[in-house]
Amino acid sequence: MLPIILLSTIAAVQAVSLPRQDAAASSPAAVSGGSPVFIACVQDAKIPSLTQSIAVNASSREECSVTCSSSSSQHDLAFFRQDTLECYCSSSADAPTSDEIVYATDELGNCRSQDDASVEYLHSTYKFSECVLPPLTPSTSNFSTSDPIECLKNCSNSSSTIVIRPEYDGDNDKFEYDCQCYDSTQDQIQTGQKTDCGFGIESIYTKA
Ligand SMILES: *[C@@H]1O[C@H](CO)[C@@H](O)[C@H](O)[C@H]1NC(C)=O
Ligand SMILES: *[C@@H]1O[C@H](CO)[C@@H](O)[C@H](O)[C@H]1NC(C)=O
Ligand SMILES: *[C@@H]1O[C@H](CO)[C@@H](O)[C@H](O)[C@H]1NC(C)=O
Ligand SMILES: *[C@@H]1O[C@H](CO)[C@@H](O)[C@H](O)[C@H]1NC(C)=O
């Protein structure tokens, strides 16, 4: 049942979105600059629920993100499935909540190819480095948010390193992201052991 739903969704998305890509060519860009960074792995079941996705062809995660970034339409996110080579350009409204996160296969953000998809944010001024176990040395400032893109955007521009950890706030019964901003250089941050990216794990980003 699921493959049939997925295929018809893809067909519908392509039919609707291809003309829109051309029509958007003359629209001014709302968000631009920066480059793609890994955010998380999610189950492939997330893909049919994307609100504004446009399907494009891509043979790798990198190619998917570059294609979505360079599209004349303005996109914030790229979703990519390695086994089917499906690539979807989408908006920040589709950013995963922390309860949607599944574990990667390594500390570099490669997702399980058979049933998961990678999510990349397309306009970061930071680059993804690696995932490590908590705890880390105390940060310069920190905040919590339901949107991982806010972690990458809301730290002060003087931050040299940003660390994002998907977590559950038991006191408020909320799934959220813990965002840590470091003004010191990454060398001064005492990082934990490298581990597969995922829920409860620290993703480290350094200024590009
Ligand atoms: C993807 O590639 C196939 C084969 O080259 C082509 O028929 C199809 O139109 C392409 N799809 C998109 C969305 O560009
Ligand atoms: C976040 O910052 C507050 C002070 O602003 C500090 O008390 C708290 O321990 C910090 N949390 C983490 C996880 O570093
Ligand atoms: C991040 O910044 C935006 C824009 O300034 C603001 O609306 C939002 O509340 C901030 N988020 C957090 C978690 O501080
Ligand atoms: C960082 O700098 C950019 C460009 O000058 C600005 O748009 C953005 O609001 C700044 N971010 C913060 C968190 O101050």
Q: How are the strands of the biggest sheet laid out side by side? A: 2-4-3-6-1-5
Give the CA-based shape: globular
What is the count of DSSP helices, taking H or I runs of 4+ residues? 3
Radius of gyration: 17 Å
What does this structure look like?
- The chain has 208 residues and is α+β, with helices and mostly antiparallel strands.
- It has helices at 2-23, 61-70, 148-154; strands spanning 35-43, 54-57, 77-81, 86-90, 101-102, 116-124, 126-132, 141-145, 161-169, 174-182, 202-207.
- Strands 2-4-3-6-1-5 form a six-stranded antiparallel beta sheet, with helices on both faces.
- The longest helix has 22 residues, at 2-23.
- The protein is globular and about 40 Å long.
- The N and C termini lie far apart (43 Å).
- 38% of the residues are buried.
- The model is unreliable at 1-30 (pLDDT under 50).
- One 2-acetamido-2-deoxy-beta-D-glucopyranose (NAG) binds next to loops.
Describe the protein's topology.
Blueprint lengths: L1 H22 L11 E9 L10 E4 L3 H10 L6 E5 L4 E5 L10 E2 L13 E9 L1 E7 L8 E5 L2 H7 L6 E9 L4 E9 L19 E6 L1
Antiparallel strand pairs: 1-5, 1-6, 2-4, 3-4, 3-6, 7-11, 8-10, 9-10, 9-11
The structure holds 2-acetamido-2-deoxy-beta-D-glucopyranose (NAG) (4 copies).
Give me a quick take on this structure.
The chain contains 3 helices and 11 strands; from the N terminus they run H-E-E-H-E-E-E-E-E-E-H-E-E-E. By secondary structure, the chain is of the alpha+beta class. It binds 2-acetamido-2-deoxy-beta-D-glucopyranose (4 copies).
